[in-house]
Amino acid sequence: MCSDVREIQTEKQTATMAPHGSNGGGEAMLPQSEKSPISTILIFIAMQNEALPLVNKFQLKEDLNSVFPKEVPWVRYHGIYKDLNINITWPGKDLTLGVDSVGTISASLVSYASIQALQPDLIINAGTAGGFKAKGACIGDVFLASYVSFHDRRNPLPRRDLYGIGMRQAFPTPNILKELNLKVGKLSTGNSLDMCKQDEALITANDATVKDMEGASIAYVAELLKVPAIFVKAVTDIVDGDKPTVEEFLQNLAEVTASLGQAVSQIVDFINGKCISEL
């Protein structure tokens, strides 16, 4: 089944999924205030360890009168940094197990609720990711995703295969790339930290350099609600390397999270005072 999906994707993906590229390049994604400086930024982060360096950097405070339903563990940090209203949201801890609520379901729910409540001009999905040495990724590299796709929604039925893959273009930021000299690569999203053979085949077909557990779901929500979104991913582990993923991830998490925070801080500094079209 997986080989069939890969063949279909290789032949049809680029042309058929073109409409989803509006998440990056189309005028429809630009707000009416595109000629005005960006005012409100939503930074979605899946893990608390990834969020706290930025909370401290921007001197944000936790929202004690939450904009979210009282029943959910979702957390918002907010504050003013330079000329920007910055919001960091993360899904919080699972109410039963006490671990970060990672994955596409939490990401979709929290990003949707955050956009509805906060009406951001721009979304930044920042997080750690696995990287592929075959595509040039190294531990600590920070990538801006050019395209995002899913690799674990396999459905070989006509057109549903492409819906499952869900390739979407990130909002293009040529000036950020030029100024900060970040790497560029495609991002593939799934709900597992490890990689089975079926996932590997579709990640390869997606031409992905990095893999995560939320990006493509946030791209989907951003496209629905017409908000430009960019994806900043720092590599904690080499998926096609010779070290166990869990071991390498835990070993590098603290250092790579610091690199991620630095990159996002630089991006926010660049964004300050600029309009969407200047990114």
What does this entry look like structurally?
This protein has 279 residues and is an alpha/beta fold. The chain has a single domain, classed as 3-Layer(aba) Sandwich (Rossmann fold), CATH 3.40.50.1580. 35% of the residues lie in helices and 23% in strands. It contains eight helices and ten strands. Helix 2 packs parallel to helix 8. The longest helix is centred in the last third of the chain and has 27 residues. 44% of the residues are buried.
Largest sheet: 5 strands, mixed, barrel
Order of helices and strands: HEHEEEHEEHEHEHEHEH
CATH superfamily: Nucleoside phosphorylase domain
Spatial strand arrangement across the major sheet: 5-9-8-6-10
Considering DSSP H and I runs of 4 or more, what fraction of the residues is helical? 25-40%
CATH class: Alpha Beta
Global geometry:
globular
Count up the helices. 8
Quick check: average pLDDT? 88
- Unreliable spans: 1-28
Protein name: PNP_UDP_1 domain-containing protein
GO biological process, one term: L-methionine salvage from methylthioadenosine
GO molecular function: methylthioadenosine nucleosidase activity
Organism: Cephalotus follicularis
Question: Which features does this protein show?
Answer:
single chain, 279 residues, alpha/beta, Rossmann fold, five-stranded mixed beta barrel, 8 helices, 35% helix, globular, disordered N terminus, methylthioadenosine nucleosidase activity, Nucleoside_phosphorylase_sf, PNP_UDP_1 domain-containing protein, Nucleoside_phosphorylase_d, MTAN
Summary of the model, kept short:
The chain has 279 residues and is of the alpha/beta class.
